[in-house]
Specification:
18-stranded antiparallel beta sheet, two-stranded antiparallel ribbon, 25% helix, elongated
């Protein structure tokens, strides 16, 4: 037997196994390095604690999209100038960006800083930037994240831990805007005329998304300590398939929502709605307290948790006033408006359900909720339709955790002449949905049109 040949065969076989093992190991390393899920690290994770303003483009699509819709809210030329500045600094690698944040801090209100996230930061890119644009300071806090600043004072102060207030209710689509009270840039000054003063006194976050001509604007703030949240008590009510205006109110609504929707919008509509004979106390009791109001032409419909029949006689008197001639002691004739006589309760049947009538008012109870209208056809529309509240705002709801509070849905041409209508028409807004919402961490307003 030739032992030398046998040894050589074994050596060759052994060498082949080593090659296979090394090849498999190389493949595994490749898979781990390039195909394993990457941790979600965002540029906004490195915003300093004393950030007083930021403007964030959340992805490449937003960086490149048409800004036309955003001109409804602010002068887009200013943030666009900052994008052009970055484009001049980064050159062809600007197209490699996945996220951009322009921000300012309390320590230097007039100094501009930028945090950018690349899909992949090129090797030795930092050195080339420092050589080609020495007027800026550059710092790389994490893989594919780069700080570009007009000052070298910021690099050492970037936080090691994520600032919590910048992650609450974070939305990774569209434009995100934040400002600290008193730190809003001039190009956002138009918001002073649109927002209630109590909102401007706290940190404000805005998310703006535009899709196929439709705009979704989400304005929110961190919830105050000790608050509670609950859904609208009539969230399961039946609604009409079509209407000109719908508004809902909660007796427990936060001041945040009540002042903006109830006072600044709905109260402006009262003179145009068909229940103008109601006094303010009745409006507060019947409409602004756990109720939904729907208007369709001259018809209206109220939804509530209490039986309307006990109140219908009083309401009928308010709606049906009679002119009565009377004489003063000196013989002068004058006309006095008096409530009509108490009306009998009539009963009607539609689709095998009975509803009642008192004077010109109609009412029914369905699913432990009570409906009152001045038009029988509206009540019959409720009987035939079971459209839920969620369907009205389905396209507008961006988070299933949002619990709707006060809300309004309307055609802008139904809004009485006012600064609000002027603004909406100037911005070519034809329909408008607004609702206040809360969840466990934030409270806010969402607008869709």
């Amino acid at each position: 037997m030739n032992f030398l040949k046998l040894v050589k065969k074994k050596e060759k076989k052994f060498d082949f196994k080593i090659v296979i093992a090394l090849l498999v190991l190389a493949i595994l390393l490749f898979l781990v390095r390039f195909l394993a899920p990457q941790s979600n690290v965002y540029a906004r994770d490195f915003l300093p604690q004393d950030t007083t303003f930021y403007f964030q483009w959340t992805n490449q699509k937003v960086l490149l999209q048409n800004e036309a819709d955003n001109t409804r809210f602010f002068d887009t030329s200013v943030p666009q100038e900052h994008l052009e500045t970055l484009q001049g600094i980064l050159g062809k690698d600007f197209s490699n960006l996945k996220e951009v944040i322009w921000f300012r801090t309390e320590s230097a209100q007039d100094v501009n800083h930028y945090l950018v996230r690349f899909s992949s930061l090129p090797g030795k890119f930092l050195d080339s930037l420092q050589n080609s644009n020495p007027d800026y300071f550059y710092f790389q806090p994490s893989r594919d994240i780069l700080l570009i600043s007009e000052s070298d004072a910021l690099g050492q102060s970037l936080p090691e831990l994520i600032v919590k207030r910048f992650t609450v209710n974070y939305i990774d689509q569209g434009l995100n805007i934040y400002w600290f009270p008193g730190s809003k840039p001039e190009f956002l000054s138009s918001w002073d005329n649109l927002l209630p003063e109590q909102l401007l006194a706290r940190d404000i976050f805005i998310n703006l998304q535009t899709t196929k001509g439709h705009v979704r604007l989400n304005l929110y703030q961190t919830r105050l300590e000790g608050g509670s949240h609950k859904p609208h008590p009539l969230s399961g009510a039946r609604l009409l398939a079509d209407f000109d205006l719908m508004a809902g109110f909660q007796a427990s609504s936060t001041e945040f929502a009540t002042n903006f929707i109830s006072r600044d919008i709905i109260l402006q509509l009262y003179n145009a709605l068909p229940y103008y004979n109601l006094n303010q106390e009745e409006i507060n009791n019947y409409i602004l307290s756990d109720s939904i109001l729907i208007q369709d032409g001259a018809g209206w419909l109220l939804v509530g948790k209490d039986d309307w029949q006990g109140l219908a006689i009083d309401l009928a008197h308010d709606f049906e006033l009679q002119e009565v001639s009377k004489l003063l002691p000196d013989g002068t004739t004058y006309i006095e408006l008096l409530a009509g006589e108490e009306q009998p309760v009539l009963e009607h049947e539609f689709s095998q359900l009975k509803y009642w009538q008192i004077d010109g008012l109609y009412g029914i109870s369905l699913d432990n909720m009570y409906y009152l209208s001045n038009e029988a056809f509206l009540l019959e529309g409720i009987i035939n339709n079971n459209r839920p509240l969620s369907s009205v705002f389905g396209d507008c709801l961006s988070d299933s955790s949002y619990e709707i509070g006060d809300f309004i849905s309307l055609e802008v041409d139904q809004v009485p002449a006012s600064s609000l209508r002027d603004y909406l028409e100037t911005k070519n807004i034809g329909t408008l949905d607004i609702f206040s919402y809360q969840n466990s961490t934030v409270e806010g307003l969402q607008l869709c049109f």
